[in-house]
Amino acid sequence: MSEKRLRQAIDTLKESGVRITPQRHAVLEYLLNSMVHPTADEIYKALEGKFPNMSVATVYNNLRVLREVGLVRELTYGDSSSRFDCNTSDHYHIICNECGKIVDFHYPSLDEVESLAEQVTGFDVSHHRLEVYGTCEDCQKVATQKH
Ligand SMILES: [Zn+2]
Ligand SMILES: [Zn+2]
């Protein structure tokens, strides 16, 4: 992980007048290090050893603050387990059918889709989301071991 990204993120918080508590710092650092788009629960479990007094609600509250200043994106999938992404540049996701992990990949942004959708439907398009599904390398290994 680049220390630079963490420093930049902390600068953004300072500029937005957000107080940087040790927990908030830890949540941010964990997200920047994580490549799998963790849920609030996973973040809580990873940090509870370090902050025994922290609750899941605190994690949610910190994620909300980070989202409000634009450092974190929330990915909702129609269930209760939102996942959090601190890569706020344009990118796409591939999702594992087995373990639910979400990995970033880059592909030229499909701007034509947005303009076509706008023309065809008359909508004022805000953004789009593209997801590719499959089985991740870890889960493929587990599947081979079972045979
Ligand atoms: Zn998997
Ligand atoms: Zn992502």
What does this structure look like?
The protein is built from six helices and five strands, in the order ααααββββαβα. With 147 residues, the protein is an alpha+beta fold. It has two domains: 1-85, Winged helix-like DNA-binding domain superfamily/Winged helix DNA-binding domain (Arc Repressor Mutant, subunit A, Orthogonal Bundle), CATH 1.10.10; 92-145, Ferric-uptake regulator, C-terminal dimerisarion domain (Dna Ligase, domain 1). α2 crosses α4 (56-68) and α3 (40-47) packs across α4. The longest helix has 13 residues, at 3-15. The radius of gyration is 18 Å and the shape is globular. The model has no long low-confidence stretch (mean pLDDT 91). The structure holds zinc ion (2 copies).
Quick rundown:
It is found in: Cytoplasm. The chain is of the alpha+beta class and 147 residues long.
